[in-house]
Specification:
Elements: E1 2-5, H1 11-19, H2 30-33, E2 41-42, E3 45-48, E4 54-58, E5 61-63, E6 66-69, E7 79-80, H3 86-102, E8 107-111, H4 124-131, E9 135-146, H5 155-166, E10 170-174, H6 177-189, H7 199-208, E11 213-220, E12 223-232, E13 236-244, H8 246-251, H9 253-265, E14 271-276, E15 278-279, E16 284-285, H10 287-294, E17 299-309, H11 316-319
Parallel strand pairs: 6-8, 13-14
Antiparallel strand pairs: 1-3, 2-5, 3-4, 4-7, 5-6, 8-17, 9-14, 9-17, 10-11, 11-12, 12-13, 15-16
Helix pairs in contact: 5-9
Amino acid sequence: MRIEKYKNEYKQMWDHFVRNSKNGNFHLERGFIDHHKEKFEDYSLLIWDDNDKLVSVFPANRDDNNLYSHAGLTYGGFILCYEMKIYKMFDLFKACFSYLKERNIKMLYYKTIPYIYYKAPSEEDKYFLYLCNARLASRNILLAINLKNRLKYRKGRIGAIKKAQKNQLFVKESNDLKSYWEILIELLELYNSKPVHTLEEMEYLKSEFPGNIKLYGCYQNTTLLAGVLVFESEIVVRTQYIASNATGKNLGAVDLILSNLIEEYSQDKNYFDFGASTANNGYYINVSLSNQKEGFGAMSVVHDQYEVNISEWNVSLIDRALTKSNI
């Protein structure tokens, strides 16, 4: 196999591969990865097989002798073609880990992709991470709704939706990111936090991916009370930010937005992902936030991250799973 570091001239090739992969989406295209490239030393890889066919891309950044896949992304890992077979994955892992070891990478921090984002089964990486003695470093919980097999809303959520309707609140798609960001910042300041993205970063991303990044606002007359910013991929819609001002919270504005979106996206998506309800590598659960999401019928999906000691890795760890009789 042949491995090369990503270069700008590979952008079109990279994006075309991701769009046609079995486990990639716009979140892993270069326009998204590179929006904060000044914060990271990019060390993304492209991997071709012996027939010179591109079989995988690997979004990553390097920090000293550590490699992350990717520290600036929610998920990552090997993005794979539909033709990927187990025996090819043997070769891919061996080639990639040898490549990293030769370049003095000591530790690999590997983010998996939650299975709900797969367009086809794509868990080859988890098997080979196991063979490589990877350590499970964190396990977070995402809460997601199976839009093709939905549960009924809990009583509290239904009551909030009715309250919003009674007060003549309404939901529409909005381009007023600035007003929404003011609500979002004010809300997060209550928890000594701030948005992962700046307003300028989100305006750039929305301009790059107008069909994937959308803001839905809840209004009373002309006043924005709350909003939900979503990332829409082929089979999943994910809530990136959910925020409301005090009036919107009192009137059930967020509940109205979410119920509208769940109904709308049930037509052509498989999952509605509320994102993580855990922190501190999974050791902290936000119970109140989880209860709200579960009130809409969301259920748990784990999102794992692994550590691999590349400095101690050797090819025999993978070869032990092969015998001459089954190659």
